[in-house]
Amino acid sequence: MTSENPFIPAPDFARLRIEYRQRSLTESDVDPDPVRQFLAWLNEAVAAKANEPNAFTLATSTRDGIPSARVVLLKGMSDAGFVFFTNYLSRKGEELDANPHAAMAFWWPELERQVRVEGEVARTSAAESDAYFNSRPPDARVGSAASPQSRPVASREELEELERALWKAYPRGEVPRPAHWGGYRLNPRRLEFWQGRPGRLHDRIEYVRDEHSGWVRRRLAP
């Protein structure tokens, strides 16, 4: 006797369409410095109570160019770049070590906006990684230290046992930062600011870093 999987109908994709009408984006609207422009938009997303405004999709790839993507959180930024933290032994960590180029995509539907960032990635200093790790809540520190991120595990119970062992060793959760956990900084070479517009005639302003003249700004067709 065999069983068949029940048919799951696809949603009506046409009904999911949203017309973007909130705002426009012109060359005179944006800051000459894309980092300042990003901070302005990020602050507007925070003010609009966007869900996880610092969340972004991080795309990495292997040395052979096989891509993968996941959502992570931005934890710092400056003129030097965009900072996030992870397990260096995770899939993204291994891919970044093999191919230190990555892309970020921020999406704020509340404002009908998207920002894309591309650049080269390097690890933050041990001191910077320590400072961030030690600022985290105890349960986050224990969870990060306990998890063999991206590695197969036999069960949920195995993970919980690893966590219990660390709580036993550090009852207050003051786990020191593991050597395999820390930060990365993406040094941007290209940024694009996207504003949704009616009829899918969206506004796109791109910045590309020129080693001699600094940031070059131009409009892209949607």
Describe the structure.
With 222 residues, the protein is of the alpha+beta class. The chain has one domain (22-136, 179-220): Pnp Oxidase, Chain A (Roll). The protein is 25% helix and 33% strand. It has 5 helices and 9 strands, in the order αββββαββαααβββ. The chain has helices at residues 34-47, 91-98, 126-135, 138-146, 156-169, and strands at 55-61, 67-73, 76-78, 81-87, 101-108, 113-123, 181-195, 203-210, 214-220. Strands 1, 2, 3, 4, 5, 6, 7, 8 and 9 form a 9-stranded antiparallel sheet that branches. Strand 7 and strand 8 form a beta hairpin. Helix 4 (138-146) packs across helix 5. The radius of gyration is 21 Å and the shape is globular. It starts with 33 loop residues before the first helix and ends with a strand.
**Which secondary-structure class do the elements indicate?**
alpha+beta
In percent, how helical is the residue content? 10-25%
CATH superfamily: Electron Transport, Fmn-binding Protein, Chain A
Give the C-level CATH assignment: Mainly Beta
> Which CATH architecture?
Roll
Counting structural domains, the number is: 1
The quaternary state of the protein chains shown equals single chain
Order of helices and strands: HEEEEHEEHHHEEE
Key descriptive features of the protein:
single chain; 222 residues; alpha+beta; Pnp Oxidase, Chain A; nine-stranded antiparallel beta sheet; 5 helices; 9 strands
